[in-house]
Design brief:
Length: 142
């Protein structure tokens, strides 16, 4: 019964990782703009089951590493290998000024698009075997 539960949890994690990777890893996602081919500044957030390498200069997951017990321990799943630097809002592409704050399990980004007076806060948070991405605040002053 425990093996079945572990396999079920692993399947759920793989599906979630696949969906996140589809959004952050392949093609030209609808929210983020064109990619740039320069080296990213990376950091890691983690839980007891998952180690997530993120770009600390722009919201992007670079890779996931499974830390849980069993045969999957150490398995790596790749996210977006292309460095991102722009957002699309209403069909227009903008290059924001980005700052980030990192804790053990969370990275919070502040994206400031001064040309249109918009500031966005978003974060990745890893809990157990899940990664949450959330836009937590949008402020418009323009």
């Amino acid at each position: 019964m425990i093996q079945k539960s572990l396999r079920s949890n692993l399947r759920i994690m793989l599906v979630l990782l696949f969906l996140l990777t589809q959004f952050f890893g392949f093609g030209n996602p609808p929210f983020f703009g064109e990619t740039t081919a320069y080296a990213a500044s990376q950091t890691t957030i983690q839980s007891s089951n998952l180690n997530v390498t993120v770009d600390d200069a722009f919201p992007r997951i670079i890779q996931y590493q499974w830390l849980g017990a069993g045969a999957s321990n150490g398995a790596v799943f790749y996210g977006n290998e292309d460095t991102l630097s722009q957002v699309k809002i209403n069909g227009m592409t903008y290059t924001p000024t980005v700052t980030s704050v990192v804790t053990r399990d969370t990275i919070t980004y502040t994206l400031d698009i001064s040309s249109i007076g918009v500031t966005m806060k978003m974060y990745f948070k890893v809990t157990d075997n899940l990664v949450e991405f959330k836009v937590s605040d949008i402020t418009e002053t323009g």
